[in-house]
Amino acid sequence: MSDVNKVVLAYSGGLDTSVILRWLQETYQCEVVAFSADLGYESVERARAKAEQMGVRDIRIEDLRETFVRDYVFPMFRANALYEGTYLLGTSIARPLIARRQVEIAAETGADAVAHGATGKGNDQVRFELSYYALNPDIQVIAPWRSWELQSRTDLLAYAEAHQIPIDNVSAGEPPYSTDSNLLHTSYEGKALEDPWHEPDEAMFQRTAAPEAGPETPQYVEIDFEEGDPVAVDGTRLSPARLLERLNELGGAHGIGRLDLVENRFVGMKSRGVYETPGGTLLQTAHRAVESLTLDGPAMRTRDEIMPRYASLVYNGFWFAPEREMLQALIDESQRNVTGTARLKLYRGSARVVGRRSPRSLYSESIATFEADSVYDQKDAEGFIRLNALRLRQRRRVEGDR
Known about the structure:
The protein has helices at residues 15-28, 44-53, 65-78, 95-109, 124-135, 153-162, 169-172, 240-253, 278-294, 297-316, 322-334, 365-368, 380-399; strands spanning 6-10, 31-38, 58-63, 113-115, 140-142, 178-181, 186-189, 219-226, 229-233, 236-237, 258-264, 270-276, 340-347, 350-357. By secondary structure, the protein is an alpha/beta fold. The chain has 2 domains: 6-75 and 89-174, Rossmann fold (3-Layer(aba) Sandwich); 181-295 and 337-357, Argininosuccinate synthetase, chain A, domain 2 (Alpha-Beta Complex). The strands form 3 sheets. The chain has a 5-stranded parallel sheet with strand order 3-2-1-4-5, sandwiched between helices. Strands 10-9-8-13-14 form a 5-stranded antiparallel sheet, covered by helices on one side. The termini are far apart.
């Protein structure tokens, strides 16, 4: 292990990665660069303080919120990506950005390896490492949970005590589940949530009010889109990160965006996760509303047919794979005319579309009207129906009543 002189560690400042930091130092006798990405809703200053306490000389704290939303969240939302029909991929989409910066920092600092704190049972180990190798085929990857002797939280606490690792009240009193937060979502899994029959404790939720306790009066919000990306809320143009923050505030206040899901992990097991994605839920709903006016029907169905494949690629860690990039190009082409405004009505856990408009709308009231018009000749429908019925009639003639 002496061939590793420097490692870039994805560092949160929590118990797991603090133990990993010391373990890397002692096992490899190497320098550790502690890297923390500020993606919103996590305390990066906690990570800085802890790394300083542990004597780390090179601490990298980077505000990547705008990059995260602009270059990762928004492209994914152009696809309306939902994993297994419901999950908005909040954890999945953050991993390739963190991995990219680790690889870049390794190149900047001359580090031999990168390391992460994901366990050998989870999806994140796959997401991190597929990204590492896609960006630097020769990088060394260290995944302590797959190689060390430690097996439990009790083991981690004992190691921390034995190796003089400072444990603050946050780490010592961590809740009975693991969490991950960024601007798109907060996730909860494990421990108390491992029984899929067990209802989550209301006190667990950080981003959303209980839907039944929401405001008695509905609230309306308008979201403007340009070529598939949101650009303004209620007429005020905002940067990508600030726009998502504002939608999180609005959706969270009305208890919108909660999801309790048993999902299929890439590594083969089922896992129960609980998610809060208030702003993302509003974005996805509004985006589809604008698309309903501006996206041609067969084009929309083509995009929707590839969406599950795209979502699986993101979930499984293939953000930097050529097939994801190919699908992204097709999706982005579909968004050229997705410009307009959606109006949503927020009320106690729901976000309903109550209006949509667009300067590029394909909707024509003069064609769709039930009143008399000179555009659509209803007699034309007879031939259309008979042509589409031809194969059905012929099948019945051949097969009879069997």
